[in-house]
Amino acid sequence: MLYLYLIILLNKNIRMDLINNRYYIGSIDALDIVNEFGSPVYIYNVEKIISQYNKMKNAFNVPKLKINYAGKALTNLSILKVFNKLGSGFDAVSIQEVKLALDAGFRPEDILYTPNSVSIKEIEKAISYGVKINIDNIEILEYFGTFHNSVPICIRINPHILAGGNSNISVGHIDSKFGISIHQIPLVKRLVETLKININGIHMHTGSDILDIDVFMQAADILFNIAMEFPNLNYIDFGSGFKVKYKPDDYETDIELFGSEMSAKFNEFTKIYGKELILMFEPGKFMVSEAGFFLVKVNAIKQTTSTVFASIDSGFNHLIRPMFYNSYHNIINVSNPTGRPKIYTVVGYICETDTFGWNRKINEIHTGDILGFYNAGAYGFMMSSNYNSRYKPAEVMIYNGEAKLIRKREVYDDILRNQIIVDIDIA
Question: 156, 178, 382, 391: which could join 410 in a potential S-S bond, CB 3.0 to 4.6 Å?
């Protein structure tokens, strides 16, 4: 028993571990989690989150580094409190995320609000909260110069670099709705000088799932050239987009190599700039993707002429990424880890095509088995919905050998909440 505990302890920072023919998340049996909290259920291993944060922090060698967790990946308050205690900042893309960050204990000055296509009313609200403001629109920049030129702001630059693992998450190319074009910098400078706008930060984000660090280096050269046009900067934010592993033999961004090369380039630039600046990043998926697991129950096995379907008690209402991004999530049979592998197509219970994986080799599946999805920490629960009037699942956090419920499973009253029933007479 002591031997088993030591193995779990040594492996608790990595993925779901098969030990003595049982799958563990952290030091807790995955089946015990389902027995206690039901299915489907999202589970987050906090040790893995801490490990990822420290891995990134230790990769850089610069005088001033600030990691802002990109909350859109996962905004459960219990998880946000973890990042706050780690010393992270927070990257918010909506006023609701700003409020969540404040509720989680983040200081306003540690929150960077990066909106897109929002109203002036929302931006005014963010100003009232005292958070950092990041602007990616010439019209909004003019508004700040007219009404809030004493408020320091950051400008988001579109570097015109096509990068990212999917067209939906590639946001730095020339036709993207995000950022101010590098070709508009002369206009930005005229507005800044004429309206006395206080620019204290430069930001960019080229996309997600970027594997080639040369993309970051290319963008860095562009951003450094632009930064030289603004003498009062406090920080330069390179966004994120680091790739994580989705398959056992998959590639990931070499964060140590990237940290070494970026640190050298950044330190050299600050000498030329003549001032120490904060090097800033805003990772989301990199922090929480591999820490998350999604456990579901098999409702039925269905054989057609050429396909064996494993139908589960979930659908794209809970995990839309495979349908929306064509993303890959490794799927295992938690209940039968030693069974003979067979080929299955895993599908959900939504009244549309909601396929999680085509022709996957998975240990033999029976009705009632528990399946586990990897890489469910980022954009899993956050993109869930009540489509087909289904309930959203529970969320559980694991830390120090304990599993804690951090979001209740929805019930029927949650479907009715906020509805106003009007019963009309039909003649």
Answer: 391
| HEC per residue, the chain | CHHHHHHHHHHCCCCCEEECCEEEECCEEHHHHHHHHCCCEEEEEHHHHHHHHHHHHCCCCCCCEEEEEEHHHCCCHHHHHHHHHHCCEEEECCHHHHHHHHHCCCCHHHEEECCCCCCHHHHHHHHHHCCEEEECCHHHHHHHHHHCCCCCEEEEEECCCCCCCCHHHECCCCCCCCCEEHHHHHHHHHHHHHHCCCEEEEECCCECCECCHHHHHHHHHHHHHHHCCCCCCCEEECCCCECCCCCCCCCCCCHHHHHHHHHHHHHHHHHHHCCCCEEEECCCHHHHCCCEEEEEEEEEEEECCCCEEEEECCCCCCCCHHHHCCCCCCEEECCCCCCCEEEEEEECCCCCCCEEEEEEEEECCCCCCEEEECCCCCCCHHHCCCHHHCCCCEEEEEECCEEEEEECCCCHHHHHCCCCCCCCCCC
Tell me what pLDDT residue 170 has: 41
How far apart CA 104 and CA 47 sit, in angstroms, is 19
**Cβ–Cβ < 8 Å for 180, 136:** yes
294 and 42 in contact (C-beta within 8 Å)? Answer: yes
Bridge partners, residue 99, by sequence? none
Among the listed residues 286, 305, 324, 48, the one whose alpha carbon sits nearest the alpha carbon of residue 166 = 324
pTM: 0.92
CB contact burial 59-85 (16+ within 10 A = b; e otherwise): bbebeebbbbbbbbbbbbebbbebbbe
Measured CA to CA, the distance from residue 228 to residue 218 in angstroms comes to: 16
- Residue 207's pLDDT is 62
CATH numbers and ranges of domains, the chain: 2-38+291-416 (2.40.37.10), 47-285 (3.20.20.10)
Per-residue confidence (pLDDT) for residue 175, from 0 to 100: 61
d(CA 127, CA 241): 27
User: Which are the catalytic amino acids?
Assistant: 351
